[in-house]
Amino acid sequence: MRADRVNQDYFNLFCNLSARLEQYGVARNDIKKAYVRAGNDPALFFNEAHCSGVASETILFGVVADYLNLPFRDRVTSCRVIDDKSRVPAELSFIQHALVLDAQNKVLLYLSPSMEHMTTLKYYLSTNPSLNFKIAICPPSVIQLLDRRSKKHELARKAVTMTPAKFSSRRVLDTRQAFIIAFSVSLLAFLFFNFLWPTLFAFHIFLSCFFFTCVGIRLLAAMSAQRLPKLQQTLPLPSDLPNYTVLVPLYKESDVIPQLLDALSNLHWPRGRLDIKIICEADDRETLRILGYFKLPPFMEVVRVPNVGPRTKPKALNYALQFARGEFVAVFDAEDRPHPLQLLDAWAAFQKGGEQLACVQAPLIIGNFRNNFLTRLFSFEYTGLFRGLLPWMARHDLVMPLGGTSNHMRRSALEKVGGWDAYNVTEDADLGVRLARFGYSIKTITHGTIEDAPENFPDWYKQRTRWMKGWMQTSLVHLRKPTETSRQLGFKRFIISQVYMLGLIISALFHPLMLMTMIFLVVSAFFSPFEVRHVMLLTIDMMNIVMAYVSYYLLSARAAEKSEMDGYPYLLGIVPYWMMISLATWRALLQLMREPFLWEKTPHFRSSNASQILVSEALYQNAVYLEDAKNAVPAPMILVSSSPIASRSRPS
């Protein structure tokens, strides 16, 4: 009975405010549509009306001020925020507010009430006619701006320290790890100098154990690898969808902003429950200047990150996370074009997986894969990883390293594990391990994201250096206390995760050694007879190298579409590609010792090759492929509404 009375009060208030909105020039039909989109819930009406463009914040909260007979402020004037909660009456403390001292040294309480608080506020004002401060109504954005200005350094420091010290890469090595590594290197050097052939043979056997285990993991994943399934082209929007936050960190990304804003505008989610944070460094003037050319829709907001602590992507994500209002959080990169239904796909997976499902990973699809050798091999690598290996790991509940983009997280789980490590330059892999250590699971979904591979060696080289350095950081962090990590993950998952992580690093470092040893032994056979030890080493190396190449090729080839293979000799390209990875890994090792937190930026450029985008869109929508890839026709993209951005050209 009481709930019915509350609902009736809300509806009466909604009718009162609707009449006032009409007086402000808002069409009655638009008000009705916003009310329906809010699920016929008056408490959600304001947010939906604002985010769908029915009325601006200024109009909506001007109406609230008019209803409450209070002054209205739509911008921040010269003032100082008073951080003293005791001065705010308890009856008003639950309303979004800011207590400030204006230029005339008068105390002013800014309030931004939601629909559910307005009746309470009106009653309080009627029973407390004389207050020792003035009250003004303002939009939520004004209070957010006041709060961020007054606490920006405190919020930035929290972003840096959000991850607990025991899981942070801020300290590269602990004392025990440093001793073990120094002792192992010294012992190995001594043995090589004094007992070359026995040590070389034993070292090859040791490496072979890692390589064969990695080969086994790839072969098992290849057995179940398959092409992306046919995607649904429409999905209904349930009425009970939660708020969803999308975080998009940018740094020197002015070239891709128009493309990015169009892609974000096409995400299929109720505008009143979509919260997109475009995150920029406060001193990135060029990116902020270009963003200023666009009138962003109400569900998008630019967040400026103060220059406190390391300048890394995870720190920027942690900073923006403190302002997120979503129950779920997704991360996209600047050049990403996510499938419009990806958020719905992720939400459906969360509903099915229960509270223990903390994260889902969408597949990443390379849009410029035809450009050159690098983009071909990069795309081939991503195909094996996101359509073969990660789905296999998810099915067997193994520790799954996340991709740096298109991962969707349950916000409560993300905050419980400490967000992203601000000092880890491959924060995605670290977060995947940390979620597993806290007992959470990670799954994969099918609606993917198109992104572009680096098109030249310097950009690729720096990006791969950063990735491998981050893998090293992650391995060191989670091996500080291996017994504890093993207990949290379970012995089987711990062993497989360490084989995968350490195998990735060790194989990249020493693959050239085994390759050169094999070549040396083959060449030396022409000048001197083979000894038994030479035959054994050559056999071990040939088995390792051949099996490694074949397993890598099979994993990616089984998951790739016909148009991606296109007769290209990927198997031959693996040899030079792996040598390049090895070169980047050795650079990463040196950089870990000298500049462990250096984040080398990967530049992104707006996609311009229409034919290649068309092929990638076809893969993205899983359309029927024709023999000639240039004639591949994608399934139509869903446009939820006409993009408010697509029609605006970039100013010259």
UniProtKB/TrEMBL annotation:
Source organism of this protein record: Paenochrobactrum glaciei
Pfam families linked: Glyco_trans_2_3
Record's subcellular location: Membrane
CDD domains assigned: CESA_like_2 (cd06427)
Annotated protein name in UniProt: Glycosyltransferase family 2 protein
InterPro entries reported for this sequence: Glyco_trans_2-like, Glycosyltr_2/OpgH_subfam, Nucleotide-diphossugar_trans
Superkingdom of source: Bacteria
SUPFAM superfamilies registered for this protein in UniProt: Nucleotide-diphospho-sugar transferases (SSF53448)
Keywords noted in UniProt: Glycosyltransferase, Membrane, Transferase, Transmembrane, Transmembrane helix
Topology versus the membrane: Multi-pass membrane protein
PANTHER family: CELLULOSE SYNTHASE CATALYTIC SUBUNIT A [UDP-FORMING]
Main location: membrane
Domain called Glycosyltransferase 2-like: residue spans: 329-526
Membrane-spanning ranges: 178-197, 203-221, 499-523, 535-555, 567-589
